[in-house]
Specification:
By secondary structure, this protein is of the alpha+beta class. The protein has one domain. The protein has four helices and four strands. The strands form two sheets. Strands 1-2 form a two-stranded antiparallel sheet. It is elongated.
Length: about 90
């Protein structure tokens, strides 16, 4: 009996979405991948939400404090930025 591939590899509705990423610089998002600008710097791929983020990243990416901050995953950085003491709302 023939079974279509979409029925063989069934996923729940909430898992059928478009791939999403956070902005590498400001950690906003998650945004759909096709809305983000991608900068390829072998072997890394960086995703940015707006040109201002790209310019700020190019200017400050080699600063030691920034390098340490950017080593944390974007989701962790977004949670830290939401804390009330950092100007976000809990």
């Amino acid at each position: 009996m023939f079974v279509p591939k979409r029925l063989k590899e069934w996923k729940p509705e909430h898992m059928k979405g478009v791939p999403q990423r956070r902005c590498h610089w400001c950690a906003s998002g998650p945004h759909r991948m096709y809305d983000l600008t991608v900068v390829l710097e072998a072997p890394m791929r960086y995703h940015f939400c707006k040109p201002a983020c790209i310019e700020a990243w190019k200017e400050h990416r080699h600063d030691p404090v920034v390098v340490t901050w950017l080593r944390a995953p974007a989701g962790v950085r977004a949670e830290i930025l939401k804390l009330p003491r950092n100007g976000g709302c809990a």
